[in-house]
Each structure stands twice: as C-alpha cells, then as structure tokens.
Amino acid sequence: MTATTSQQELIRFLEDRFACAQACTECARACAVRASLVDPDGTEQQELVRRKGIMCAEVCDATCRVLSEQNRLDESGIRVQLEWCRTVCLECAHAFDDEPGAEDAAKACRECAQACTDFMATLN
Fold it and tell me: What is the distance between the alpha carbons of residues 31 and 42, in angstroms, rounded to a whole number?
C-alpha cells in the first residue's frame, strides 16, 4: 500500500464518518419534531410513535457525538453504537410508516440506518 492509497483511504473514512454523523443529526431533528407533533394524551399507538421518536432522536444524537468527537472509543465500541443506532432508526421508521404526515421522518430514519450500515462497512 502506498502513502497515497492510505491517505485516500483515510479521506474516504473521514468522509463516510462525517456523512454518517450528518445523517444522524438529520434523523435526530426529524424524530424530535415528529415526536413533538404527537398528542401526548393520544392513543396507545400514538404514544408508541412518540416514544420511538424520542428514543431515536436521543440515540442518533449520541451516535453523532461519538462520531464527531475525537474520543478514544475503540472500533468495536463504535460498531456497537452504529448497530444500535441503525436498529433504533429502522424501528422508528416502521412506527412512522403508519402515521399520516410522518413520511419525511421515516425517510430520515431509513437514510440514517443506511449511513450507519455504510460506515460500519468501512471499519475493519
């Protein structure tokens, strides 16, 4: 491997990390907004959607912090965080699927899950 190849790999790694963090930020925002629109005194299904939205926003926010900070989390710790985020995002997207007006939030969740999957693929 040449120095140029390793530099290109590092650049690609950082770009993928940034793209994942950005997708997490977008998803957290969309989920927080969507959760705030659900009536807290609504049906059991609405409460489930609200709770999933809040949880997704929190997990995405935490994942973004892990990816943005220069912390010393090892690769396996980052992988666990990404997998957790991916799983929660997909669950939230499914919950949003049946909610009128939640299409954009569900899309943001799926995009975040895909970004987490893509970034995990770059980890050794």
Answer: 17
